[in-house]
């Protein structure tokens, strides 16, 4: 029984539940690693996280104004140049990554569990509950997201937190759909029946038996949608409806640089590139994850 | 199922079903905008009569606005108004919101229509080529292109395009819909400047309008292109894995005919559906694009309204875009069901 750790991680005869999970994770991860674009996406996402967590130790303040240094082009001292108030654009982009990560995480933490709940309840109970919940979901699904987010922000007021709420309110329906489909496919399976016979409560069945199986597809979809969240949040910021000055939010920075774009191109261009790269990272990773977890598409 | 009477019955049943579902969704949209109107922290009574009005005037206006009625009654009144096209007056322009919407919507429609044409004419062939070369370099190029299209912030790309093609190269006209020098030279007929100019036979105006339109329309086109090419690729791959394709190849049909005549023909219904959906997204994308290009359409109207706290105008615009969006969704569904004999 001398097996190496690598063999233990890839065996087709796992001895325990924990090992089985690890094996599946390892194999999925290997498939992901084979996809070069997905790997690039993973690298970008990790870099964004590191930037948000540790980046602020390496750059100056995002709000320090040195008016003598207004609108300086990129140089050794200011890698990305300075903006209209003499603030270092690189420092602002690094600090802005915190805002981006915060928005993405908050939206995912609201939208994922909520959609999961709605979908599981609809799929598990069926009948009238299903009909009503899915009708509401369909209505929200066929409303225009950005425009609705605009209307919500108009009512709630500007600011990052309201932008998060507005995005969350408009983006939960796909998760409900997904979770419902998954629940429908497993609610009559033997292990659910057995749990019912053992007298497990409905809540226990939903959370311990059904939710774990819905999680993979929900997480994949969340990763994919994070890029959309980044773009919507930046769009709201650009319109002046999300983050407010002097916050170093990337969309807001593009808006501020817009009036100087013909002569000082870097002010608007640099934060835009940051948005693009962050969003692309999540898209590439999500695309790769879908190939790994969704056998149907490959 | 094959007798004409039965097929007609099936179609009638389907139409009735989609009509009910559209009506419900529209009602949902109106309810959401109603809720948005309730959320706003501004007292509508104070907004109407001012802060210094005496208590009696306040109470009178409170009743006149129907705020003393139960919420469900307020909602049904609201639905009645919306259905009759009464969105109230715009605080900013002082005109009825419906009139404002009617005057700005053609500009948005113009932009979105050119955009979707670009998206279809470029996106579908790209998707087909990607599917035909599944896993080889053309497929990767299209994949990276469409993922980039999904990832790039539209407002930023608009600014960069303006910087390059207007600021540096001076190939196209800048923001706006027409140079001031040409403004109002042709009679308004369709509301779409390029068409009106052609109708009047004024080529200068036509060229100028086109020059203003080309950047924002291309920008919108890029976004629908990303979506359309990706979906086309996936539909084509499904078709190319079918047995009839193997049969066609076995019979010696050329690869070009297999792809463009057999597979594409069978994927066309799904592709058309996607184009309809994509058109709806474009109307939405127009909000940001119009802001960047100062394009006097619905998007710019709504953003201006947002900054002037002109809630009637914001809600009117939301309902208009939402309704068009919902109708396009339903239309896509209907086209899909009718065009595919297996589902009707």
From TrEMBL, chain A:
Keywords: Cell membrane, Membrane, Peptide transport, Protein transport, Transmembrane, Transmembrane helix, Transport
Claim: Membrane is one of the keywords in the record: yes
Limits of the ABC transmembrane type-1 domain: 101-286
InterPro entries for the chain: BP-dependent_transpt_permease, MetI-like, MetI-like_sf, OppC_N
Pfam families with a match to the protein in the record: BPD_transp_1, OppC_N
SUPFAM superfamilies xrefs: MetI-like
Compartment list: Cell membrane
PROSITE patterns: ABC_TM1
Chain ranges passing through the membrane: 37-59, 103-125, 146-169, 201-220, 227-245, 265-286
Topological type in the membrane: Multi-pass membrane protein
Assigned protein family: Belongs to the binding-protein-dependent transport system permease family.
Name of the protein described by the UniProt record: D-ala-D-ala transporter subunit
UniProtKB/TrEMBL annotation, chain B:
Homology family: Belongs to the binding-protein-dependent transport system permease family.
UniProt organism field: Pseudaminobacter soli
One cellular component (GO) term of this entry: plasma membrane
SUPFAM superfamilies recorded: MetI-like (SSF161098)
Short name of one Pfam family: BPD_transp_1_N
Keyword terms of this UniProt record: Cell membrane, Membrane, Transmembrane, Transmembrane helix, Transport
Name of this chain's protein: Peptide ABC transporter permease
Subcellular location: Cell membrane
PROSITE patterns, alphabetized: ABC_TM1 (PS50928)
Annotated ranges, domain ABC transmembrane type-1: 105-332
């Amino acid at each position: 029984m001398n097996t190496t750790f690598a063999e233990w991680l890839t065996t087709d005869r796992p001895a325990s539940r924990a090992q089985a999970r690890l094996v599946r994770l390892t194999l999925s991860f290997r498939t992901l690693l084979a996809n070069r674009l997905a790997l690039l996406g993973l690298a970008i996402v990790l870099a964004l996280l590191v930037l948000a967590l540790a980046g602020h130790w390496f750059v100056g303040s995002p709000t320090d104004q040195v008016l003598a240094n207004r609108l300086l082009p990129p140089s050794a001292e200011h890698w990305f140049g300075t903006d209209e108030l003499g603030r270092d654009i690189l420092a602002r982009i690094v600090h802005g990554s915190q805002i981006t990560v915060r928005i993405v995480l908050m939206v995912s933490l609201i939208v994922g569990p909520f959609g999961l709940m709605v979908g599981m309840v609809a799929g598990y109970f069926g009948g009238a509950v299903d009909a009503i919940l899915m009708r509401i979901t369909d209505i929200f699904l066929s409303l225009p997201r950005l425009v609705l987010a605009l209307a919500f922000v108009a009512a709630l007021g500007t600011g990052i937190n309201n932008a998060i709420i507005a995005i969350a309110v408009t983006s939960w329906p796909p998760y409900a759909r997904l979770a419902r489909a998954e629940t429908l496919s497993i609610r009559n399976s033997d292990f659910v029946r057995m749990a019912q016979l053992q007298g497990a409560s409905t809540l226990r069945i939903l959370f311990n038996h059904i939710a774990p199986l819905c999680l993979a597809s929900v997480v994949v979809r969340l990763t994919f949608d994070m890029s959309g969240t980044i773009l919507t949040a930046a769009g709201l910021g650009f319109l002046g409806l999300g983050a407010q000055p002097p916050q170093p939010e990337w969309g807001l920075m593009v808006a501020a640089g817009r009036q100087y774009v013909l002569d000082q191109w870097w002010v608007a261009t640099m934060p835009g590139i940051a948005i693009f790269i962050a969003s692309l990272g999540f898209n590439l990773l999500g695309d790769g994850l879908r190939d790994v977890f969704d056998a149907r598409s490959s | 199922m094959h007798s004409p009477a039965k097929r007609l019955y099936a179609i009638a049943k389907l139409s009735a079903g989609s009509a009910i579902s559209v009506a419900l969704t529209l009602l949902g949209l109106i309810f959401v905008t109603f809720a948005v109107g309730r959320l706003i922290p501004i007292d509508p009574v104070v907004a109407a009569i001012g802060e210094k009005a005496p208590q009696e005037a306040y109470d009178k206006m409170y009743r006149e606005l129907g705020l003393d009625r139960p919420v469900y009654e307020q909602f049904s009144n609201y639905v009645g108004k919306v259905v009759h096209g009464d969105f109230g007056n715009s605080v900013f322009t002082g005109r009825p919101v419906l009139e404002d919407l009617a005057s700005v919507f053609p500009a948005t429609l113009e932009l979105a229509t050119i955009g979707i044409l670009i998206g279809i004419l470029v996106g579908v062939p790209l998707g087909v080529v990607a599917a035909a070369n599944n896993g080889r370099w053309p497929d990767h190029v299209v994949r990276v292109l469409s993922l980039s299209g999904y990832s790039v912030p539209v407002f930023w790309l608009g600014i960069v395009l303006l910087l390059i093609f207007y600021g540096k190269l001076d190939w196209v006209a800048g923001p706006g819909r027409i140079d001031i020098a040409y403004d109002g030279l042709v009679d308004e007929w369709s509301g779409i400047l390029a068409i009106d100019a052609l109708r009047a036979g004024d080529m200068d105006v036509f060229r100028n309008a086109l020059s203003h339109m080309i950047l924002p329309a291309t920008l919108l086109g890029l976004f629908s292109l990303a979506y359309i090419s990706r979906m086309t690729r996936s539909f084509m791959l499904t078709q190319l894995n079918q047995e009839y394709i193997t049969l066609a190849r076995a019979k010696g049909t050329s690869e070009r005919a297999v792809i463009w005549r057999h597979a594409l023909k069978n994927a066309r219904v799904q592709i058309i559906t996607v184009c309809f959906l994509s058109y709806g997204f474009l109307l939405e994308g127009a909000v940001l694009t119009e802001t960047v290009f100062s394009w006097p359409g619905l998007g710019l109207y709504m953003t201006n309204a947002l900054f002037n706290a002109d809630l009637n105008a914001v809600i009117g615009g939301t309902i208009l875009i939402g309704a068009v969006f919902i109708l396009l969704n339903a239309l896509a569904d209907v086209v899909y069901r009718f065009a595919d004999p297996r589902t009707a």
